[in-house]
């Protein structure tokens, strides 16, 4: 199967499967008031089936395991496959994403994101972005873990881009561990801006948790998390990134 044809098939499957899983998980969500079952479905069925269709195998390296309680999992962002990869990687049902506002406008998928209390960030309006970060802080303090992409958008070349400060504001306020995660190989299989998917292997490395209280401010935490993600990325065979160019400029596309 050509990369283009596989990409079309994966996009079609994503649309159909989102509608199917939305209908399956809707009654339990309405009955219990919790979205944990839907995340379980995403981890156990949706992500594995989508990655199988992509022809992608995943190697997860997590020698230190995962924190027992809520945490913020900060990952680089190589491709459109990353959400499936991280659902496959992080063994938690109490898990949500901070995602850009545009995803919440997608029929069915956006409805699910809102009902499941995923956090929408409107990158064009600072006041709304701040409110979204406050919502994220409340969710974490209530015991739910978050996955964040501090780059705010997919890397154009697979290298780790500068980070936005928003996720680290949430981490400092919530006082929960920040776990660095590096994804390497996904950009080569699904380049940004192309509806194509090639089969292959993606490697994911999970680093040691960092305690926000050990850092003087959000900028220091950001720099250390990014430095560790870059180091993990290089260990996996990725290109890493510019350690000195750590913080994204204001107004640059990102999560906050």
Automatic annotation (TrEMBL):
Segments forming a coiled coil: none
Protein's pathway: Lipid metabolism; Phospholipid metabolism; CDP-diacylglycerol biosynthesis; CDP-diacylglycerol from sn-glycerol 3-phosphate: step 2/3
Membership in a protein family: Belongs to the 1-acyl-sn-glycerol-3-phosphate acyltransferase family.
Domain Phospholipid/glycerol acyltransferase: 71-186
Organism, as annotated: Anaeromyxobacter diazotrophicus
Keyword hit for Nuclease: no
Description of its domains: The HXXXXD motif is essential for acyltransferase activity and may constitute the binding site for the phosphate moiety of the glycerol-3-phosphate.
Name listed for the protein in its UniProt record: 1-acyl-sn-glycerol-3-phosphate acyltransferase
One Gene Ontology biological process: phosphatidic acid biosynthetic process
Protein origin, superkingdom: Bacteria
Phylogenetic placement of the source organism: Bacteria, Pseudomonadati, Myxococcota, Myxococcia, Myxococcales
Any one GO CC term of the record: membrane
Enzyme class label: transferase
A Pfam family this chain is assigned to: Acyltransferase
E.C. no: 2.3.1.51
Keywords: Acyltransferase, Lipid biosynthesis, Lipid metabolism, Membrane, Phospholipid biosynthesis, Phospholipid metabolism, Transferase, Transmembrane, Transmembrane helix
Membrane spanning stretches: 7-25
Catalytic activity from the UniProt record: a 1-acyl-sn-glycero-3-phosphate + an acyl-CoA = a 1,2-diacyl-sn-glycero-3-phosphate + CoA
GO molecular function, one term: 1-acylglycerol-3-phosphate O-acyltransferase activity
């Amino acid at each position: 199967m050509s990369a283009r044809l596989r990409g079309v098939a994966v996009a079609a499957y994503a649309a159909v499967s989102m509608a199917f899983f939305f209908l399956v998980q809707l009654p339990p969500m309405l009955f219990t008031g919790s979205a944990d079952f839907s995340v379980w479905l995403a981890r156990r069925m949706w992500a594995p089936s989508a990655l199988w269709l992509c022809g992608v195998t995943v190697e997860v390296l997590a020698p230190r395991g995962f924190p027992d309680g809520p945490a913020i999992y900060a990952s680089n962002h190589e491709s459109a496959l990353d959400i499936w990869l991280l659902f496959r990687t992080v063994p938690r049902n109490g898990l949500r994403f901070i995602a850009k506002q545009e995803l919440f406008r997608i029929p069915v998928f956006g409805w699910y994101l809102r009902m499941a209390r995923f956090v929408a960030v409107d990158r064009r309006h600072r006041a709304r972005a701040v409110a979204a970060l406050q919502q994220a802080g409340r969710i974490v303090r209530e015991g739910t873990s978050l996955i964040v992409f501090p780059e705010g958008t997919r890397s154009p070349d697979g290298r780790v881009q500068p980070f936005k400060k928003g996720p680290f504001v949430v981490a400092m306020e919530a006082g929960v561990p920040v776990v660095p995660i590096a994804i390497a190989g996904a950009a080569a299989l699904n380049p940004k801006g192309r509806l194509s998917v090639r089969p292959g292997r993606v490697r994911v490395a999970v680093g040691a948790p960092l305690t926000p209280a050990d850092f003087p401010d959000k900028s220091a935490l950001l720099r250390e998390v990014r430095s560790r993600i870059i180091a993990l990325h290089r260990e996996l065979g990725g290109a890493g990134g510019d350690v000195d160019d750590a913080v994204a400029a204001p107004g640059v596309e990102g999560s906050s």
